[in-house]
Write the structure tokens for this entry.
Amino acid sequence: MKLRLILLPTASLAAMLAIWEVAVFGFEIPAYLLPAPSRVWSAAVDIAAVLPRHITATLLTVLSGFALSTAISIPLGVGLSINKTVSEALYPLLVFANAVPVIAVAPIIVVMFGTGLESRLVITLMVCFFPIMVATATGILDTPREYLDLSKSTGASFGTELLTIRMPHAAPFIFSGLKIGITLSVIGAVVGEFITSQKGLGFLIVSATTNFDLAQAIASVVALALMSVVLYQIVQQVQKIWLPWSIKAESMT
Amino acid sequence: MTVGGNQAHVVVSEVAKEFETGAAEPFVALDNIDLTIDQGEFVLLLGPSGCGKSTLLRLIAGLDAPTRGDIQVSGDRITAGFDRIGMVFQQPTLLPWLSIFENVVYPARVRSRRLAQEKRDEALRLLEMVGLSRVADQPPSSLSGGMQQRAAICRSLILDPEILVMDEPFSALDAMTREELQFELLRIHADSGKTIVFVTHSIPEAVLMSSKIVVMATSPGRIAETLETGMPYPRTLDTLRLDRARQLDNRIRELIYGRDRGQP
Ligand SMILES: Nc1ncnc2c1ncn2[C@@H]1O[C@H](COP(=O)(O)OP(=O)(O)OP(=O)(O)O)[C@@H](O)[C@H]1O
Ligand SMILES: [Mg+2]
């Protein structure tokens, strides 16, 4: 059964690549419009030596941006959910900030923060703070009344209730936010690299397309997608290890 | 064995509870409740759905405040988080991120790490008593409903409260588990002498366990009649076959369904 789950998608991928390969040669599509998979592969081999450097650069932006967003969004989400004044004062502004298309403000951010890591961090933060914050607030507010009755009947203070009931209950929600956040971080990092960077997978794509080297661009995109999947899986595994009880609950809903 | 030292333990005087519903007049869930529960009594609250049993229980447990009147426990006015009271809900309400053992010590943990440490042996003893020692380290989700409710009872006992307050604790269980737990609770009551206030929808359950039955009526929620059970402890399955048990059963049905409906 498990094997089937690996074999089937692998087979359909192979079929798709085969059709692509045959079509490119059959219709004589020029490589600057659509390179065949085999060409993409050789492009990947060509850039294999420099790839780790670019991957590391992108990963640095993604992880530090993600860490920054998490450090800001979780406390913010808690604050919004437990304090009405905070929520009324800040929530509309946060919705507005989230509504701003990041690609539109990216040039402004570069002017303000320069072409270094700072700009890319701010861009990443803008893309991924919102889902993490909303997930945190949702989880805190979702705490069942029975749990709150329990903590009240044991005489728990507000802080104890937050730490021993509301936060643990919100943890799986927060992880859903983090899983969305980590993929959005990759998008944020690439947008940042498109406009500022001299290295990273985003930069590699831009420089390849300016040379009409689509094979290299596609190879970079695939590397990027793989990175995104791996990061997502890591977050998922952390959840499995830290909150084993939440996995079952999640698969039931 | 007799129950109730004739010493008032919980005194509910002229209590009313109203809820704001958005309508012009607030909804009267409880009206003018007077109730005295003696030390060590086993009191069952019974009545039609919506008559305010849970509401009254929440007031006694200090989870909500009455709109009027007051409730005293051994002469002290009740406040939220009153640690002389252990609460058991209809659902086990075990925290899924804690093991069974950790759930049982949770009320101690809320106070301090040290108290939680001190209560370890007590928790193990309670789990042993209800036959859960072997699953102490497992998560709640791996236990059946009956086992979970047993763990919840252990949790309510961990701080050795004077009063146990239970809101239909057995109504989500199958008939056999329910019977087992009824006798387990009777044993706990006999051994500990705790005062128990227990809500149920089941007339046999009320007759089997109680020293006093409070029958409530609805619109507005009020006490229809208070019946002294007047049967000796320990109770057995034969208790329900006593003449007195039949009498109580009939009287409760009369109070709930009205005289003209007879036996359903
Ligand atoms: N927080 C609340 N806000 C508004 N109305 C409430 C609230 N809690 C209870 N009520 C109302 O008060 C009445 C009594 O409710 P309660 O839950 O105490 O009844 P009950 O006797 O426990 O019923 P059941 O047997 O179904 O559990 C009901 O009509 C209910 O709708
Ligand atoms: Mg109820």
About this structure: Chain B has a mean pLDDT of 88. Chain B has eight helices and ten strands. The radius of gyration of chain B is 19 Å.
